[in-house]
């Protein structure tokens, strides 16, 4: 597989072809993800929960993210690597630029940050500085204490309209991709059709341009999983096989199924 670029993912969207994204935190799994031809790796701050055993992503630091990004980058060459800017690492514009720079130097090709139109100045600056940005709207786990739990977002009209406005604002500011987490499937469909940039869904129904799952969830390692997760290790002969089945199911539209989404 040749190196996956952001323009090549844009072209997939234009052609109506889906792509798969999975979280990954180390070199060994990155090698397997690459062998399964999964297009994008997200070094997610979910590592705070699945690797470090915390009950949220809030304790994760930029150094943690840089360490795991470097591990992943040593294990693969083709997938596009996105790294999360963790909690409290982009409170000021200079802090955002410095921390994003650290993640890019560690091996990321894009950084992801959680939040709406208040991030537009940061996104403009990062893009101008050669740092591609992925937005993240809907359920934003770094704000779990504001949201009051891990709940579906955008169910009422006001909230849905705010998410649509934020999505448009992030794109206009230069975001090159967007994650939508735990939103009703109709809202995710509308945003995916409205934006030119690829929209990656998790718990957002089948009509986004791509899907992401946490690696440990799709391998059935996590003790308690959300409704939008499918265990691809069940009935698979190896981890690589589970990853291949995940990618195939995303590409042929059989994952997520109706029971994985929200109305
Ligand atoms: O940190 C993470 O793994 C994420 C995904 C759940 C989208 O942000």
Description:
This protein is of the alpha/beta class. Helix content is 41%, strand content 14%. The chain has helices at 6-15, 27-35, 47-50, 62-75, 93-106, 120-128, 144-147, 157-173, 185-194, 215-218, 239-251; strands at 19-23, 40-43, 80-84, 110-114, 133-138, 177-181, 199-202, 210-213. Bound molecules: 3-methyl-2-oxobutanoic acid (KIV). Residues 23, 42, 44-46, 84, 179, 181, 202, 212, 214 line the site of 3-methyl-2-oxobutanoic acid.
Summary of the model, kept short:
With 263 residues, this protein is of the alpha/beta class. It has helices spanning 6-15, 27-35, 47-50, 62-75, 93-106, 120-128, 144-147, 157-173, 185-194, 215-218, 239-251, and strands at residues 19-23, 40-43, 80-84, 110-114, 133-138, 177-181, 199-202, 210-213. Helix content is 41%, strand content 14%.
């Amino acid at each position: 597989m040749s190196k996956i670029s952001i323009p090549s993912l844009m072209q997939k969207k234009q052609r109506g072809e889906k792509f798969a994204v999975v979280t990954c935190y180390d070199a060994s799994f990155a090698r397997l993800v690459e062998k399964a031809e999964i297009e994008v790796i997200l070094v997610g701050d979910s590592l705070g929960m699945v690797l470090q055993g915390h009950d949220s992503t809030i304790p994760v630091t930029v150094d943690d993210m840089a360490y795991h990004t470097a591990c992943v980058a040593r294990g693969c060459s083709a997938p596009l690597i996105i790294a999360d800017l963790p909690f409290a690492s982009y409170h000021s514009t200079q802090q955002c630029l410095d921390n994003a720079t650290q993640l890019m130097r560690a091996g990321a090709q894009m950084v992801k940050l959680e939040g709406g139109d208040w991030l537009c100045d940061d996104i403009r600056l990062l893009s101008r500085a050669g740092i591609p940005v992925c937005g993240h709207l809907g359920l934003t786990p770094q704000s779990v204490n504001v949201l009051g739990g891990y709940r579906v977002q955008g169910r009422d009209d006001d909230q849905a309209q705010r998410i649509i406005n934020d999505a448009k604002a992030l794109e206009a500011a230069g975001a090159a991709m967007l994650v939508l987490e735990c939103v009703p499937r109709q809202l995710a469909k509308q945003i995916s059709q409205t934006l030119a940039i690829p929209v990656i869904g998790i718990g957002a129904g089948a009509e986004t341009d791509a899907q992401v799952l946490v690696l440990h969830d799709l391998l059935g390692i996590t003790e308690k999983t959300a409704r939008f997760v499918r265990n691809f290790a069940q009935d698979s002969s190896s981890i690589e096989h589970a990853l291949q089945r995940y990618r195939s199911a995303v590409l042929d539209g059989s994952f997520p199924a109706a029971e994985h989404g929200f109305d």
